[in-house]
């Protein structure tokens, strides 16, 4: 059992690199990859999609590679459909963490990461209205305040403690 890093680029290709490779290329990682997850090689990754689904994959099913290797498509190692778009990739490395969900219509909710640890490969991560979509899912372990920004440069800031901890099947609050 060792710590590795799962890297997903903007084209949706995923690969694993060992800790030494990650440390050598640390300054380039943030500009080259959209999602960077620290994870144990025996752990799991959760892929959240615009449609509100969560796809669970075992890290062992993702190939190890060098930093400059392309990797494999997310759709090849998960149950994602061709029309699904990933909005976030999160590891189970810190299983006590809380996740913050935000939708296009402005609904937000907090959910414990442990809610998504199931035996099924695909589950509903959140309820969405027909004309809504998931925009982001992010870990909020030590954050106190959240700032959301719209396309029109409208900002809203709020305390995380003001959002109650909900189950994954809940829709969220405005």
Class inferred from helices and paired strands: mainly beta
Which range best describes the helical content: under 10%, 10-25%, 25-40%, 40-55%, 55-70% or over 70%? under 10%
Alpha plus pi helix count: 3
Query: Outline, from the CA principal axes?
Result: globular
- In terms of quaternary structure, the protein is single chain
Lateral arrangement of strands in the main beta sheet: 3-1-2-6
β content, as a range? 35-45%
**Nearest-integer average pLDDT:** 86
In total, the number of strands is 13
SSE run: EEHHEEEEHEEEEEEE
The major β-sheet equals: 4 strands, antiparallel
Between the first and last Cα atoms, what is the distance in angstroms? 42 Å
Report the uncertain regions: none
Radius of gyration: 16 Å
Please render the helix and strand layout as text:
Blueprint: E1 3-8, E2 13-18, H1 19-24, H2 26-32, E3 35-40, E4 44-49, E5 53-58, E6 72-73, H3 74-77, E7 86-91, E8 98-103, E9 108-112, E10 122-124, E11 134-139, E12 145-149, E13 155-159
Antiparallel strand pairs: 1-2, 1-3, 2-6, 4-5, 4-7, 5-10, 8-9, 8-11, 12-13
What's a concise summary of this model?
Helices cover 10% and strands 39% of the residues. It is mainly β and 174 residues long.
What do these coordinates show?
The protein has helices spanning 19-24, 26-32, 74-77; strands at 3-8, 13-18, 35-40, 44-49, 53-58, 72-73, 86-91, 98-103, 108-112, 122-124, 134-139, 145-149, 155-159. It is mainly β. Strand 8 (98-103) and strand 9 form a beta hairpin. The longest helix has 7 residues, at 26-32. The mean pLDDT is 86.
